[in-house]
Design goal:
The protein has 196 residues and is mainly beta. It has one domain. The chain has one helix and 13 strands, in the order E-E-E-E-E-E-E-E-E-E-E-E-E-H. It is globular, with a radius of gyration of 17 Å. The N and C termini lie far apart (46 Å).
Length: 196
């Protein structure tokens, strides 16, 4: 297992004989996680990559180990997908993170808990289904440092359409949305969030 430091954390990424089969995305790795996304018994890879310039959002890149050899193959590429700090000397409380979940899914977290009065956290839960990565869940919570009644929250299961905003449960049409096609407005609209 090759190991490397990602955002100050030692992460096991690839089998010792594995290499990337596709060109590596430009930019700098901010966070990485390994797990068995497609449940074939081999270790796969998920990374967040900072763009080359500060005008774009952070990209999500998802790799699967090829079935006949230990090479990582890029199977999903979603540049400019989440917001967050991209600099090692940037503001605390705005760092994105990608982690492997015990069930084989992937959590992609972004946040602003360090500046301004509007503080928020958002998590996308990604799952590998029918040969592609989809957004299975969207979770959002916010609070206002000056107005304790101004916070919002939502936990939305995109696949089933069920959601909970605050203490209110509801449902909307079930969806299958690939990570490439996902926009945060999909989750915000389903939950009825007003983020303006």
């Amino acid at each position: 297992m090759v190991r490397m430091f990602v955002a100050g954390v030692l992460v096991g990424l690839l089998p010792a004989t594995g290499v990337f089969a596709d060109p590596f995305p430009a930019g700098r790795i901010l966070s990485g996680a390994s797990g068995d996304w497609n449940k074939d018994g081999t270790s796969d890879l998920a990374i967040l990559v900072a763009p080359d310039n500060d005008d774009d959002g952070i990209g999500i890149y998802l790799y699967l180990t090829e079935s006949d050899r230990p090479l990582q193959k890029l199977v999903a590429s979603a540049p400019d997908k989440i917001w967050g700090n991209t600099k090692l000397d940037g503001l605390y409380g705005q760092d994105p993170e990608i982690t492997a979940l015990a069930n084989g899914s992937i959590a992609v977290m972004s946040q602003n808990s360090g500046i301004g009065r509007n503080r928020w956290e958002q998590t996308l839960t990604l799952a590998y289904r029918e040969g592609r990565f989809i957004v299975a869940g969207y979770t959002y919570s916010s609070y206002d440092t000056l107005d304790p009644d101004a916070g919002q929250s939502c936990d939305y299961n995109v696949v089933t359409g069920k959601f909970k905003t605050g203490e209110t449960a509801g449902s909307t049409a079930a969806k299958t949305v690939s990570i490439e096609d996902w926009t945060d407005e999909i989750g915000q609209t389903a939950c009825g969030l007003d983020l303006n």
